[in-house]
Amino acid sequence: MSRTLQKQNGVFFSARLPDNTAFKTLEFEVKSLCMGTNLQYAESRLSRLMADFYEVVARLNMEDVVQEEPKIVVKYLLEALRPLAFKNAV
Questions:
Q1: pTM more than 0.70
Q2: Less Cβ around it within 10 Å: N or C end of the chain?
Q3: Could you give the CA distance from residue 27 to residue 86 in angstroms, rounded to a whole number?
C-alpha cells in the first residue's frame, strides 16, 4: 500500500472518531437546559425543551449528534427533567 493511500485512509478513518472536546462543550451547554413548569401542557413543555436542545446543538454545529449518538442525546434530555422545580410540580 502506498504511503499516500495510507495517509488518505488515516484521514478518512480519523473523521469517524468522535471529537471529545466538542462533546465536552455540548455537555457543558446542555447542563443549563431544564424543562420549565411555566407552560400548562406537558407537550408544550417537551416541545420547548426540544427546541432549546436543538438550538444549542445548531449553535455548536453538532446537528449530526442526534442521529449518530441517540443514547447521549437521551441522557442529556433526561438530565433536563431533574430540576427541583420540575420535581415539585410533578
A1: no
A2: N
A3: 20
Secondary structure of residue 69 in the 3-state scheme: coil
Cell of 71: 443514547
Residue 69 and residue 24 in contact, taking contact as beta carbons nearer than 8 Å: no
The band of 52, judged by pLDDT with boundaries at 50, 70 and 90, is: very high
3-class secondary structure per residue, 20-55: HHHHHHHHHHHCCCCCCCCCCCHHHHHHHHHHHHHH
Torsion-angle region of residue 61: left (phi > 0), alpha (psi -120 to 50) or beta? Answer: left
pLDDT tens digits for 30-41?
A: 888 887 777 788
Buried b / exposed e over 24-59, threshold 16 CB at 10 Å, is eebeebbeebbbbeeeeeeeebeeebeebbeebbee
